[in-house]
Amino acid sequence: MSIIHILPEAVANKIAAGEVVERPASVVKELLENSLDAGAGRVEIAVEGGGKRLIRIVDDGQGMTHDDALLAFERHATSKIRSAEDLFEISTLGFRGEALPSIAAVARLVLETRHASENSGTRVEIAGGKLRDVKEVAWPQGTSIEVRDLFYITPARRKFLKSESTELGHIATLATHYALAHPEKSFRLTSLTNEILNVPPVGSHRERLYQVMGGQTLEQLLEMAPVERRVLTAVLPEAGEQGESSGEAPLIRVEGFISRPEVQKLNRNNIYFFVNRRLVRDRLILHAITEAYRNILPAGVFPIALIFLEIPPSEVDVNVHPSKIEVRFRHGSFVHDLVRDSIRQTLLATRPVASFPMSRSAPPAGLEVEAADVADRLAEEPPLMRGGVMPPPPARPTGPGTGREFHLTPARMEPRPQRLPLDSALAPYAPSSALAPLPVTTEEAAIQTPRELPLDLQPLGQVQESFIVAVNSDGLWIVDQHAAHERVLFDRHVRRREEKKVEVQRLLMPIIVQLKPEQQVTYQVIADELAANGFEVEPFGQRTVAIKAAPADLPADEVEKLMIEILEGASQEGATLSLDDLRGRIAASISCHAAIKVNMALERSKMDWLLQALGGADCPMTCPHGRPTVLRYGMKDLMKAFKRM
Ligand code: ADP
Ligand code: MG
User: Fold this and answer.
1) Please, are residues 66 and 118 in contact by the beta-carbon 8 Å criterion?
2) CA nearest 426: which of 214, 266, 148, 222?
3) Ligand 1 in contact with 63 (CB < 6 A)?
4) Residues 360 and 390: beta-carbon distance below 8 Å
């Protein structure tokens, strides 16, 4: 019996051509995809020597018949598509019929498999593309493929492989991706010395995330409520509308996890986008994510995002790239907007207030605020320690003078390394199976996180003339006066820039600024935008300009610094900085230089004004650089800390 067939040449020619076996991880990818396509519920991967010496994948999928076990190694032999039309509606991970022959051509391969329709299994041995042995074996249903000595036949290519740990890292990353996309299946990855991944089946992405990345990462993430929309009509379906007649606009569903606004990553390595459970790289979606975080995260830093898109196969072309890592959407801008809006919605709905995760991590240097006994006591009872979700806090420092420190850790979110073992390729290879089952926390988190900044805050005073302390019936609030004012000014400036009504102040004396060559180049590129933002600048000889007017509210001694900062920021990314990014940066720079500084005494009326103005801002909880503006210590937290509940 045969399920596999060889594609006619005309069809084969329409398949994105190219080499798929680049390194051990690409072998693992192809074999894993085959196991998943075969309906496996459990996949076990064992590697030796970073996959260079051995890769073995065992699955409990449907297996292959004797005939198919041989046919599978022919070029363009596949059970997944038949005709060229099928290429437009691919619902499996594989479809090219090239992986097994390509792998068998460059390694020593042993396949053992049995299909439910046959009583005995088949063992096929191939080396360097040559069939060595075929025999009947006893084998449970499912498939095992063993790949030894990758590229033994082409020593030059073998030399190009990276170190064992690097290759193993790639394999770990890859297995993690598939594990994230398939929470209902179990995955295990082992090396000779370590169990790198071992995740039993779970019921949700959330639980799988917890298994793979741990509670701390999960805590940085917001879960996006699933959104379903029909292309074109763009209307959220009513309940029960789903199973309607075909011929209707295709239904697209998006869900996932995105990081809280205060989380900042220095690269895109934590952005994962899955289309029908296939991890893809897609600039369009990257753009949608960046757009969603515009003015919540500064340019040049990135969020964590895991976006799962379910889309009818006919809406997406996966036949773009030989390793199927790129896709093309039929309705790209619709998908883009759907993703952007869903993320934005989640961010706005949450408007998270950073609370006091004291003692969860070492505070950034220089931000330790001395406080009274009260605070010391609060530190002992971190209010966020709900239901034992988080690991126990590390012991507090006991050295002289440290007993009273009150760490406002989240106030300044300097980018710092996070434990997200995906891009770090699971560096310590810690087995994640040791993690306990995931306790439910979403609801609780929602209760503790207010959605907006209330307008009835009563300021009591300042801590070190830097942080405004305020109260209302909800509890105690602490506001970073500089960050808060920045947010207020930023919003106002953006509005006025849009209306072309930026207020300008004439300077009594022009400020003469010398520009470096690259600054000069940048200046010429952005001169119009500078003018639109309230700068009146005139050339003043070789590489020198005279600033005659600047945005209002800016202290005169900040003008030069601001101008240089804008030029530097705009040139760092050269031509790639879009006009929107540039505008965002200029607005952020202006608001930063014009805002109230720290270590500045404020009168009560000024504090009142600032709190009101912040409450009216679009995103009151973060400054334009993405740092939190407000911390809250809720009534419940106080009651708990004082053991009154
Ligand atoms: P493709 O996945 O593109 O069809 P491959 O060369 O990867 O091409 O595999 C060829 C065929 O071998 C598949 O279409 C499938 O029918 C069969 N096959 C490969 N791996 C497995 C497996 N683990 N379990 C069952 N069948 C498999
Ligand atoms: Mg395949």
Assistant:
1) yes
2) 214
3) yes
4) yes
Residue nearest to atom 14 of ligand 1 (CA): 78
What is the three-class DSSP state of 607? Answer: helix
Distance 131 CA to ligand 2 centre (A): 19
Q: How does pLDDT run across 232-251, given as a tens digit for each residue?
A: 644 444 444 444 445 678 89
> Within 13 A of 17's CA, how many CA atoms are on the CB side?
6
Ligand 1 contact, 115 CB (< 6 A)? no
- Residue 390: band (very low, low, confident or very high) from pLDDT cuts 50, 70, 90: very low
Q: Is the CB–ligand 1 distance for residue 324 below 6 Å? A: no
Neighbours of 137 (CB within 10 A): 11
Distance, in Å, from the CA atom of 293 to the CA atom of 591, rounded to the nearest integer, reads 19
Arithmetic mean of pLDDT over the chain: 80
End-to-end CA distance of the chain, in Å? 69
Q: Letter for the amino acid at 326? A: E
The structure tokens 């006591």 sit at 377
The angle, 0 to 180 degrees and rounded to 10, between the axes of the packed helices 579-594 and 481-498 is 130
Judged by its nearest atom, the ligand closest to the C-alpha of residue 143 is 1
Give the integer Cα–Cα distance in Å for 123 and 114: 9
Per-residue pLDDT band for 485 (boundaries 50, 70, 90) equals very high
Point out which residues pair with 130 in neighbouring strands.
127
Best substitution site from 30, 31, 34 to test ligand 1's pocket, by max atoms within 8 Å of Cβ? Answer: 34
State both tokens at 194: 């370590």
- Can you tell me the mean pLDDT for 78-107? 91
Q: Return d(Cα 594, Cα 588) in angstroms, integer.
A: 10
Nearest CA among 168, 172, 178 for reference residue 272: 178
Structure tokens at 270: 């934590």
CB atoms inside a 10 Å sphere around CB 109 = 25
Output the CA 27–ligand 2 centroid distance in Å: 10
Closest CA to 172 of 45, 30, 39: 45
Count of CB atoms situated within 10 Å of the CB of 369: 17
What value, to the nearest 5°, has the Cα angle with vertex 601 and ends 492 and 354?
60
- The residue whose C-alpha atom lies closest to atom 16 belonging to ligand 1 is 79
Q: Whose CA is nearest to atom 2 of ligand 1?
A: 94
Beta bridge partners, 305, equal 258, 271
What is the per-residue pLDDT for 356?
A: 53
For 398, other C-beta atoms within 10 Å of its C-beta total 7
Q: How far is the CA of 82 from the centre of ligand 1 (A)?
A: 14
Ligand 1 centroid vs 311 CA: distance in angstroms?
23
Structure tokens at 485: 């004012």
CB-based contacts of 498, cutoff 8 Å, min separation 6: none
